[in-house]
Amino acid sequence: SPPPPVHSPPPPVYSPPPPPPVHSPPPPVHSPPPPPVHSPPPPVHSPPPPPVHSPPPPVHSPPPSVYSPPPPVHSPPPPP
Predict the structure, then answer these.
(1) Which of 12, 35, 62, 72 is 20 to 30 Å apart from 52, CA to CA?
(2) How far, CA to CA in Å, does 52 sit from each of 41, 46, 57, 73?
């Protein structure tokens, strides 16, 4: 029979690389919040929109009559 080896084979210097992970890495602990299912409802009573132009104030009061009624040409006749 052959003689036994003097030295056992040396162990490998580097261990083999670990196998790739079976599962993908876990998701981050704090994931962004999911979008809201419903958008927030609009306010029930929205404020009325501002008027585009406010009605202008009257510039002048109605003008007075240009001419006063003319006086009677003749005075009424005296009573009898």
Answers:
(1) 62
(2) 27, 17, 15, 55
Distance CA 34, CA 27 (A): 14
d(CA 76, CA 79): 9
Give the single-character DSSP code of 1: -
> 60: pLDDT confidence band, cut at 50, 70 and 90?
low
Task: Give the distance from CA 36 to its chain's centroid.
Answer: 15
Looking at residue 13, its pLDDT comes to 75
The CA distance from 41 to 76, in Å, is 82
Q: Is 66 left (phi over 0), alpha (psi -120 to 50) or beta?
A: alpha
